[in-house]
Design a protein that fits this description.
Length: about 450
């Protein structure tokens, strides 16, 4: 039997997301101020172009360290902000970093060219040949420009996730090369022992955060829990549920609505990590994920053998009851986005309405479970079927099904197009943004 613990919404407390977001902004602002102070203290012994270029380079290095923090997958920020939003911030900060690096290179080259009366190209070659660390900086910038190019939406859509991810890993090489350039050629953080200690401390913290969040925590948890597949249950021709168990799962800090990056350690799948949400609330004895066939990788899940070792990274995501602000809840799910909703429905208290949007009745994953669970909890379940056009979750439709929608927390999970449309509808209905919690279910897209 599943044991659930009631989690009442914090009616007057400061929202966890606001606290974490403000903390990140304050951290970045404080470091910008510190870097600026050290830069001014080091003095301006060059022309205006070189001074501007150096300052742009320092801010670029600071953003690079901030980038590492955003993707470190630290539980404190992930549970409050969510990996999808942190990844989005990482993307936009990355483009800002790219432009700062371009400005750094252009201003530095033209500044030295102005002082030496050389042409920009000759000056760049001369700097690469005579100044330690400059060649490494050029290679780092080239790598970051490649990563930035493949991260543009038009290129991202044409690349397989594994290809994009492999190219993205070169960012770490760029980070190492850029840092060694700063140490070799920088003057701001060699002007004083305090500045030098700060710079090493900043980068040590950023790299340490990545090591802890991406290596130490996942490896430690998997060594402790020793996860294995205990059952493989076909739910339909295209949907399968995988049950995973292990040791001391009551100590695993997983919550309904979160997901893991799952690696099933078979000969042909150990190198693939796929994000799947928990489709049942964790009960301390087992975890369940439910996947719909979307390619050869997910199709192979139904052939997993009981006893297969599992390496799971997580839990991740802020799509949990931690962020509730109202006693009653509306859940809006589309397609396989029902899986985290199924888990949330199990954990939620108060009056719950679940709207499940699918094309046909046969597409309704776990519908029998949902019906039974909704009956047990006194929740309302609405199955909305039909093609995507016309929109059946327009303002009038949702207002008819849930007249008090503006007084509820609303959780939305489904394909990106549906999620965007529902979020627009909720805005039209006057639902406050603090009450809207969305999961776009597109991490691996």
């Amino acid at each position: 039997m599943t044991t659930l613990h009631r989690v009442d919404p914090p009616r007057t407390a400061v929202r966890p997301k606001a606290v974490a977001r403000a903390g990140l902004y304050a951290l970045l602002a404080a470091n910008v101020a510190v870097v600026t102070v050290f830069f001014v203290q080091a003095g301006f012994a060059s022309n205006a172009l070189i001074v501007t270029g150096r300052l742009a380079g320092l801010y670029a290095a600071l953003l690079m360290a901030f980038q590492l923090l955003l993707v470190a997958r630290l539980p404190f920020f992930d549970r409050r902000i969510g990996m999808d939003r942190l990844t989005s911030w990482h993307r936009w900060v990355g483009f800002g970093l790219l432009w700062l690096l371009v400005a750094h290179g252009v201003f530095i080259v033209f500044g030295y060219a102005q002082a030496s009366s050389m042409g920009p190209v000759d000056q760049l070659v001369d700097l690469a040949e005579t100044v330690e660390g400059v060649l490494r900086a050029i290679v780092a910038m080239a790598l970051i420009m490649v990563v930035g190019a493949v991260s543009a939406r038009c290129a991202r859509r044409r690349l397989a996730y594994e290809t994009w991810h492999f190219i993205h890993l070169y960012t770490y090489l760029a980070v190492v090369l850029a840092f060694t350039h700063q140490v070799a050629a920088g003057s701001t953080f060699t002007a004083s022992a305090t500045a030098t200690a700060y710079w090493y401390g900043l980068w040590g913290t950023a790299l340490g955060a990545v090591l802890v969040g991406r290596v130490v925590l996942p490896v430690g948890r998997n060594l402790r829990h020793r996860l294995r597949v205990t059952a493989v249950v076909p739910e339909s021709d295209h949907v399968v549920s995988i049950y995973v168990s292990g040791r001391d799962l009551d100590r695993l800090p997983a919550r309904a609505g979160q997901f893991f990056l799952w690696r099933f350690l078979t000969r042909d799948r150990w190198w693939q990590a796929n994000p799947f949400s928990l489709s049942a609330a964790p009960d301390g004895t087992h975890l369940r994920l439910t996947a719909k066939t979307a390619g050869d990788g997910t199709a192979a899940l139904r052939h997993l053998k009981v006893g297969t070792r599992v390496f799971a990274e997580g839990p991740y995501g802020a799509f949990t009851t931690m962020h509730r602000t109202r006693p009653d809840t509306l859940l809006v799910a589309g397609g396989v986005g029902i899986t985290p909703m199924r888990a949330l429905l199990e954990e939620l208290h108060g009056h719950v309405v679940l709207i499940y949007r699918v094309t046909t009745d046969q597409d309704a994953v776990l519908y029998a479970e949902l019906t039974e669970l909704a009956h047990t909890k006194g929740a309302e379940l609405h199955l909305v079927t039909g093609p995507a056009v016309p929109d059946k979750l327009a303002p009038r439709d949702i207002a008819t099904l849930v007249p008090d929608v503006a007084d509820r927390d609303v959780y939305v999970c489904g394909p990106p197009g549906m999620t965007t449309a529902v979020l627009r509808t909720l805005g039209d209905l006057g639902v406050p943004r603090a009450q809207i919690h969305a999961e776009r279910f597109s991490l691996a897209g």
